């Protein structure tokens, strides 16, 4: 699952979506109203861009031949996301400025085409706004509250789902409707339920999918509760991260079913992918895999807040002399040792890695602690540490436990009869307890 935010990807899409030739008003593709969405007729540029995007996914190993590939080639992204946002301010500039582009406007179509097929995440809703009938233009401040995730991650996860015709599928976290669209294409829309906490999101996706000829069940509610009216589901897919597995989703999984979701800690740096299966006799098996990318944290979950490194803190780390600097023969886990970093996020909460830094850089925003480490010759590292936490020592304490447990990349999740969830390895050499699932609003604790 690779992030496709690369210069090569942007260049390829630019070729598929060139600047439009000047046209007279009469030659602009006519717009039609389908399912409540005004859709400008798609030209060959968007079709070529889809082919380019799918080709890059295949080259990166995120997508293989099969029904998911066929769906991504067929689904017109300019219909699913006829409006989307681009950021017009620098990443650390406050307040942020965003511009809503609209496919119906010829002057927006080239940039929007490149955005939709870049492989990057695509923001589609600002500050919980209604999404039908919006006027294009600039918005200032606020946050993006719905988006289409990066296509490398999305394609890889959907392939793990092993979708098949006729399956009953629950899509939790509707977003831009890309996942629901693929499910409709592969499984048939009769068996697809897509659920989002925001009715505005559901209304928009219902209309865009109808414009493509699909009419799944689109519902509004807390994703942790699932949608029991259509259970049991052969597949459940959650597109936001949770601190632990919601029991309702396990209950609604059909015998022989499979569920996927990101289980995250207070750090967004080291996510885990929970893979839950239910046997034909109803036995539940769950495992947690260390992965490179995961979904963002869900909203409205009490006590589940992820921490980030501000621009000011990153600059402080880069320039800081630290409490001490020394050379060390300890070797940190490599970036591909996902299981070690997953354990670090769980056992030493509040740590965040700066992946944009040249050195191995980790900070703890809550107390201002940080560490920097860089290779300094064969078998040596130059390490600088600052603040009350010795993050270098914490890293190696967890790494030692991980190596003693056999350097696992995957852990077992034991779900007790009381609902308690423990992540553990064979023999129990390395383990931690996931937070107790919090009650949803209106539910007794």
TrEMBL record:
<feature type="region of interest" description="Disordered">
    <location>
        <begin position="1"/>
        <end position="33"/>
    </location>
</feature>
<comment type="similarity">
    <text>Belongs to the methyltransferase superfamily. L-isoaspartyl/D-aspartyl protein methyltransferase family.</text>
</comment>
<dbReference type="InterPro" id="IPR029063">
    <property type="entry name" value="SAM-dependent_MTases_sf"/>
</dbReference>
<keyword id="KW-0489">Methyltransferase</keyword>
<keyword id="KW-0949">S-adenosyl-L-methionine</keyword>
<dbReference type="InterPro" id="IPR000682">
    <property type="entry name" value="PCMT"/>
</dbReference>
<keyword id="KW-0808">Transferase</keyword>
<dbReference type="Pfam" id="PF01135">
    <property type="entry name" value="PCMT"/>
</dbReference>
<protein>
    <recommendedName>
        <fullName>Protein-L-isoaspartate O-methyltransferase</fullName>
        <ecNumber>2.1.1.77</ecNumber>
    </recommendedName>
</protein>
<keyword id="KW-0963">Cytoplasm</keyword>
């Amino acid at each position: 699952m690779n992030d496709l935010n690369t210069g090569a990807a942007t260049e390829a899409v630019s070729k598929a979506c060139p600047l439009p030739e000047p046209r007279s008003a009469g030659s602009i593709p006519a717009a039609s109203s389908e399912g409540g969405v005004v859709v400008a007729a798609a030209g060959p540029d968007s079709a070529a861009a889809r082919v380019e995007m799918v080709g890059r996914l295949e080259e990166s190993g995120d997508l293989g031949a099969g029904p998911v590939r066929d769906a991504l080639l067929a689904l017109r992204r300019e219909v699913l996301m006829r409006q989307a946002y681009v950021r017009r301010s620098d990443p650390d500039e406050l307040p942020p400025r965003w511009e809503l582009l609209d496919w119906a406007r010829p002057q927006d179509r080239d940039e929007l085409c490149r955005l939709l097929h870049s492989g990057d995440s695509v923001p589609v809703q600002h500050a919980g706004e209604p999404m039908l009938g919006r006027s294009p233009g600039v918005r200032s401040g606020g946050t993006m509250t719905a988006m289409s995730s990066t296509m490398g991650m999305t394609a890889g996860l959907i392939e793990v789902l092993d979708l098949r015709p006729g399956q009953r599928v629950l899509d939790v976290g509707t977003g831009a409707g890309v996942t629901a669209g693929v499910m409709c294409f592969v499984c048939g829309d009769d068996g697809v339920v897509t659920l989002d906490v925001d009715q505005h999101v559901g209304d928009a996706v219902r209309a865009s999918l109808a414009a493509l000829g699909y009419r799944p069940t689109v519902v509004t509610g807390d994703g942790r509760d699932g949608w029991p009216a259509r259970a049991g589901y052969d597949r459940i897919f959650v597109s936001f991260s949770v601190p632990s597995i919601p029991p309702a989703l396990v209950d609604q999984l059909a015998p022989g079913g499979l569920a996927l979701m990101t289980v995250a800690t207070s750090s967004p740096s080291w996510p885990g992918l929970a893979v839950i299966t239910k046997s034909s006799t109803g036995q539940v098996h769950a495992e947690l895999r260390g992965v490179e990318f995961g979904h963002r944290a869900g909203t409205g979950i009490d006590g589940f807040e992820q921490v980030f490194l501000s621009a000011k803190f990153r600059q402080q780390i880069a320039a800081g002399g630290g409490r001490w600097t020394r050379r060390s023969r300890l070797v940190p886990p490599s970036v591909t040792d996902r299981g070690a970093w997953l354990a670090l996020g769980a056992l030493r909460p509040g740590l965040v890695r700066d992946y944009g830094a040249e050195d191995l850089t980790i900070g703890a925003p809550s107390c201002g602690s940080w560490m920097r480490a860089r290779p300094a010759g064969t078998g040596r590292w130059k390490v600088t540490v600052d603040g009350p936490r010795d993050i270098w020592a914490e890293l190696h304490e967890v790494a030692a436990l991980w190596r003693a447990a056999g350097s696992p990349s995957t852990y077992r999740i034991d779900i007790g009869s009381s609902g308690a969830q423990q992540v553990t390895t064979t023999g129990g050499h390395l383990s931690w307890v996931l937070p107790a699932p919090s009650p949803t609003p209106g539910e007794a604790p």
